[in-house]
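Before any further analysis, we paired sequence with structure tokens, yielding the entry below:
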Amino acid sequence: MLGCPRGWFFRVALTSAFLLRPEQHSRLPVARLAPRARSQAPGSLRCSLGYLKVEMTESTNVSLKRGSVAIEDDDRVASAEEAKRQKVSECCSATGQDGRENSSLPSSEKVPGPPETAGQGKKTSEVPSEEEEEEDGLSEEGEEEEEVESFADMMKHGLSELDVGISKFVSSHQGFSGILKERYSDFVVHEIGRDGRISHLSDLSVPVDEEDPSEDVFTVLTAEEKQRLEELQLFKNKETSVAIEVIEDTKEKRTIIHQAIKSLFPGLETKTEDREGKKYIVAYHAAGKKALANPRKHSWPKSRGSYCHFVLYKENKDTMDAINLLSKYLRVKPNIFSYMGTKDKRAITVQEIAVLKITAQRLAHLNKCLMNFKLGNFSYQKNPLKLGELQGNHFTVVLRNITGTDNQVEQAMNSLKEIGFINYYGMQRFGTTAVPTYQVGRAILQNSWAEVMDLILKPRSGAEKGYLVKCREEWAKTKDPAAALRKLPVKRCVEGQLLRGLSKYGMKNIVSAFGIIPRNNRLMYIHSYQSYVWNNMVSKRIDEYGLKPVPGDLVLKGATATFIEEDDVNNYSIHDVVMPLPGFDVIYPKHKISEAYREMLTADNLDIDNMRHKIRDYSLSGAYRKIIIRPQNVSWEVVAYDDPKIPLFNTDVDNLEGKPPPVFASEGKYRALKMDFSLPPSTYATMAIREVLKMDTSIKNQTQLNTTWLR
């Protein structure tokens, strides 16, 4: 946390709670803060990046009043984090980890990592390999100053909601102000599974299995033995086997060593040998290098399901980062994990994960080693999870220090429950920098590969990490991908991956160079463009026809889209109407909005009648999306409280630890709105909050309203 002297305060936008990384907050210097207004009573300053205040207009207009954030130095938070780090370090030492910080994680959230994996620590003079161990760029002081000075610029040059087509509200209630705390526990997401049940972490116990090894497997091997076994497992040297002497030669001791090696180092097989009157356990490769990619089939009990399903509770980590971290600790490849949906970073999230042939015991052991993670509710099942199988997500959101009257809150929440909100793609879909992701997607669809490269690599307005600024400057000056890449301590970012591709394939083969970026990341750009078109078209549709179905609108019958006919209009409501994301396998409404689609794509040099691309991955089939979403399981409560730092409800971990739920007084200094609601997949809770508060969620709009306080 950033220390802040009395007499200074700082104002910033609500959207930073969703869109800014923690390290960007912590780097705000005192020198950038505005002097406290003279009318403020001495000692009344609250200094904390803990919460953000956004005051809303009292009409349906998009404009708002100033928002604010206070900054506070909380020694207790710092000491608690230090205690956590110490605990993790001790735990990992006990289990043979070397206690190093995992440098593939952002610097603000590093945790002790597992031993280096294959290829790590090896440098090449030009282009690092993808497996190379990378630092996440602990910026030097000069770089930090550079970032800080452009913090306001980053917000100023960001997108506004109007830039991405978000312009309408569905309800007529008065907006009011509220605070969405920086505290992660004020924004909690629980996955809704295939069976319609909301996922909760409620049980940390391990299923009883007679064939599971004992807890001794985690301590029986020394750190040196683990290092030798890992080097053997990852083919780091020319040894074909590793022999471990059995000091206390008993059958039980030998069994534990066998189990430890097979459990902790997948791909290794073991045997017992007598050498000069001493017993040795010899570890060797059972199936060559393929053993690393595929868990050993013969070592898994046939009576047990091949997949261990578990509930993952995580804080401040997106799903892929979490899986990458789990795979490193387990020494397996990430592709043996499966899940139904990805969850955003900036929240507490609870979801189901499945992993192939890893025991619940090994997974549960990670609870002792990882911060901000908990694994539980283990079960063995025959099948993995599949993307898209979830029914949705349940959100618990707290808006603090609300200014709305009980009647205003009642109107807003009843409107959300009964009418819903426009199903816009939220601001997160389009990026936070001066180069929106939809612009890159449009260039891809136009087959303008030089523009794609330029948009990703060119210098841009706004704040970025110092090393990214230097990388972009080097690229603009030299157009030398290897030279620009050397400016990046983080090679796995999109810029680093593209530069690596350009170094490998050359400037005349940008398509192949771009292909080095993971497929999901590449498709994100064109999906962002589809979302950009959809948002704009939905705003036009509501502006033209309002919130009622009209002839020519589209509805779904099963998976097929059909037109609403004149004599059929009364059989539908606005909640049935869908709009297409542009593609080659969709139809468009039979009214003015169809021509609006055509005009928009034509203006972008795209042919709405031919959305197939020369490269199959970038061909857009299209899809349909409901224009109005009515949340399910909506409930709310207004509570009074005095301490702005106390949690206002328990998380799953709180409940597991037996913490009593918070007790609220009938009156207090502040009032908070606690909201619960469920949404289908691919809908944005921020858009629901926007409708309740009549809030513009863009960074740019918030900054323009706060420039007085940023000077």
